[in-house]
Amino acid sequence: MSERKSDPDRADGERAFFGRRKGHKLRQHQAELVDHLLPHLALDITTERPADAAEIFDPAAEDIRLEIGFGGGEHLAAEAQNFTTTGFIGCEPYVNGMAKILAQIEAANIANIRLFAGDAAELLAWLPDASLSRVDLIHPDPWPKRRHWKRRFVQDRTIVAMARVLKSGGEFRFVCDIDDYCAWTLSHLARAPDFQWLAERADDFRQPWAGYTMTRYGRKAAREGRKAAYLRFRRS
After folding, report:
1. How far apart are CA 41 and CA 39, in angstroms?
2. Is 67 among the annotated ligand-binding positions?
3. Is 180 known as a binding-site position?
4. Exposure pattern of 159-175 as b/e (b: 16+ CB <10 Å)?
5. Does the predicted TM-score (pTM) go above 0.70?
6. According to the annotation, is 44 in a ligand binding site?
7. CATH number of the CATH domain containing 102
């Protein structure tokens, strides 16, 4: 999980970002991937917003999904290989996580992933309206202390930002093994007029959705007795 420090007292309109850019020292090949492969896959959001986000990919993607904070990249890499005509954007400020996904991209010759090493809120602001079919947030940092709750990604303003970039019928999917953050997310999405929670029975949120790739963190949480919730919200 990322922990880069930023100003926690910024104005509400300026999303503060909190994350660690680098943890353990990268191995030589990992460092080479960050130096030489990442620049070919990285999105530059200082450029003008693209008219059509499909053109981020070559060939142009039929569909586009975003995964925020992909960690070790297990889920992102699996999705990209299972849906080869879909373009995937992975957002992760933690350089060790970026090195891990780059290694998977190289090993499997994955061509439909683009990467952003920064604040997901800034990326959302850059993307065109109704450009994504799905946004995934899987086992995010829960920031459990009350004074840190403003650091959680799920906030009213980020929900509005996701609503703008998601197509009608698109989904926000959230996975978390921390009960308080699950309740937080449900309460915030419940008051969001653009989203509908899709659960009709308990197993709809107690069990992973079909085809879900369990992450290393998810397996660790299960071993330690923490049960994850799998929440799906549809953009109206």
Report:
1. 6
2. yes
3. no
4. bebbbbbbeeebbbbbb
5. yes
6. no
7. 3.40.50.150
The domain tally of the chain equals 1
Q: Which of 63, 141, 194, 204 is catalytic?
A: 141
pLDDT tens, N- to C-terminus, the chain (236 residues): 333 333 333 333 333 333 445 567 898 999 999 999 999 999 999 999 999 999 999 999 999 999 999 999 999 999 999 999 999 999 999 899 999 999 999 999 999 999 999 999 999 999 999 999 999 999 999 999 999 999 999 999 999 999 999 999 999 999 999 999 999 999 999 999 999 999 999 999 999 999 999 999 999 999 999 999 999 999 99
Q: Does 141 qualify as catalytic in the annotation?
A: yes
Measured distance CA(87)–CA(111) in Å, rounded: 9
Q: Is residue 21 part of a domain?
A: no
* Residue 105 lies in domain: 28-235
Quick check: is 12 in a domain? no
